[in-house]
Structure prediction request, 53 residues.
Amino acid sequence: MREQRTVWIKDALLRMPESDLSGWLAALRSLGPSLAQGHPDRAETPGPPDRSA
Prediction:
């Protein structure tokens, strides 16, 4: 199943117009750091540091 999804996504990205792809990649780059910090409701994955002090 995962392999089929990967092929489908790759195919969709290859068919995407360059202007759309550039915008999509910019959005992913912007979202990446937030995703790397993990979900704040999950104790095993630390969230962003507390900057209220």
